[in-house]
Amino acid sequence: QRRVHGAGHQQWGFAGDLQVTLHQHPHPRFLRNHSDLIVTHMLPLADALFGGLEVPFVHLDGRTIHVHTECGKVIHNGEVKLIPHEGMPDPSTSNRGNLVVQFKVQLPDCPPKCTREQFLA
Fold first, then answer.
1. Distance between CA atoms of 121 and 103, rounded to whole angstroms?
2. Could you tell me the pTM of the whole model?
3. Whether the Cβ atoms of residue 60 and residue 89 lie closer than 8 Å to each other
4. CA distances to 10, 64, 68, 73, 99 from 82, in Å
5. How do residues 67-87 score in pLDDT, each as one tens digit?
6. How do residues 103-116 score in pLDDT, each as one tens digit?
7. What secondary structure letter does DSSP report for 112?
8. What does residue 25 show for φ and ψ, rounded to 5 degrees?
9. 30 and 37 in contact (C-beta within 8 Å)?
């Protein structure tokens, strides 16, 4: 709820206050934390082990943001990558928050069809 003093209807020479109530509905993909936008990306185990990915995200405004991961670097479950100034506008400043990409590593339901020794070799 926000109250803007003196911006309401004027009566008898005095302007009243304007009171605005905003209702925010959850987004199916993005979560808002103040001016930051948080998005979770499910990552197959093989991609998490080898890195070198380019992950596209369609932003709320329709633009495609490409998130790059370093080749040869393991991406751990819950690891976070920040994309500066791609979040929501901060109403108290002229800055934008960050896009926070959180990686969730998908583990296979069953082990690969090889022995432990072959897999670890």
1. 27
2. 0.71
3. no
4. 46, 16, 11, 16, 6
5. 999 998 999 999 999 999 999
6. 999 988 777 677 66
7. -
8. -95, 145
9. yes
